[in-house]
Design a protein that fits this description.
The chain has three helices and 19 strands. It is α+β, with helices and mostly antiparallel strands.
């Protein structure tokens, strides 16, 4: 009995430790959002092909991102203050440092002078219970203006990788993707997960939509994983808005046995967690089906009206005047 009681205590302590670690890592899920926490501030921003931007005649186009915490795109809280370093990989593959501006909320702002894709990284590391927690938040944003034309965009389309990132989430381009292409419901989206620039195999990748749908898959030997965006927008036909924009998160988790020291604290395990946020819209087939339904309804109404009219026309007794001489 004594041996069994010791065994159960060890199992309980180990399980409790795992729960604490999982809760700790879950609470350390960060991601970037371009939706301001203050609706009044959103009025100062301008719409672009990839969300809201800040435009001025003197500074040009700038992107503002706010740090959020949580694994639910809808209910994640806005972080009040942050001091983690930020790395910006600009459209020309140059690395720059960006600092948080801790006003009412932790926000990052950077200029986008060139056309193309920009990638912002926040990398946070700390040791807890002999485990090194490596947390990465990434956001890829696009800068494009139709006034600059649409020539030579193929060389600007390939995604850029940050080889020094502990975990990098690369969204692979869809077939025939252009600057005006948006991810929509039903699309196949593929990601390549890299660790220090090399493919990360057997990592858990979870896609979470704003409506709460989630799916977890494992990366293959080349670090690839593919999802099909679910259709989760079902409004009434008169309330359908084809420009409805919803967020989704891609969360990567991977545990590796490795010893080392960080800030004079030793560890024997590394727990990686990386998050990238994106947005998607209703499929064009969705609002086309609404249009087809409306046209079919109008045709049915017109056919019914015409049938009733012809029927009543045939049953009408035409008055005929007869004269007797």
């Amino acid at each position: 009995m004594l041996l069994f009681s010791k065994y159960y205590k060890i199992v309980a302590i180990f399980t409790f430790g795992l729960l604490l670690n999982s809760e700790l890592l879950a609470s350390q899920t960060y991601w970037f959002s371009d939706t301001p926490p203050d609706r009044e501030f959103a009025k100062k921003l301008s719409s672009s092909h990839d969300g809201l931007v800040l435009k001025s005649r003197r500074d040009g186009t700038s992107k503002l991102l706010w740090l959020r915490e949580g694994e639910d795109p809808l209910t994640s809280t806005y972080v009040k203050e942050a001091d983690a370093p930020l790395i910006l990989l600009d459209a020309k593959k140059n690395l720059k440092t960006v600092a948080f501006k801790n006003k009412s909320y932790a926000e990052a702002i950077f200029k986008m002078p060139d056309e193309g894709f920009y990638n912002l990284f926040m990398i946070k590391r700390f040791v807890e219970d002999n485990t090194l927690y490596s947390i990465t938040a990434k956001k890829e944003v696009l800068n494009h203006s139709c006034r600059e034309g649409h020539d030579n965009i193929k060389e600007k389309m390939p995604p850029n990788a940050y080889e020094a990132a502990p975990v990098d989430i690369i969204r692979e381009r869809m077939p025939r993707e252009r600057f005006h292409t948006h991810v929509t419901s039903g699309d196949i989206v593929s990601y390549r997960i890299l660790q220090k620039g090399k493919p990360l195999a057997d990592a858990s990748v979870t896609l979470v939509t704003q409506k709460g749908w989630k799916k977890t898959l494992k990366t293959d030997e080349n670090g690839h994983v593919t999802f099909e965006m679910i259709r989760d927008y079902y409004p009434e036909w008169h309330e359908f808005k084809r420009r409805t924009r919803e967020n989704f998160l891609v969360i990567v988790e991977y545990v590796q046995a490795q010893s080392g020291t960080l800030d004079d604290m030793t560890y024997d395990t590394i727990s990686y967690k990386a998050t990238a946020s994106g947005s998607y819209y209703p499929s064009t087939k969705d609002y086309q089906s609404y249009l087809y339904g409306l046209l079919i309804g109008l045709f049915a109404f017109f056919a019914t009206f015409l049938s009733v009219y012809l029927y009543r026309r045939r049953r009408l007794n035409v008055y005929q005047e007869q004269r007797l001489d």
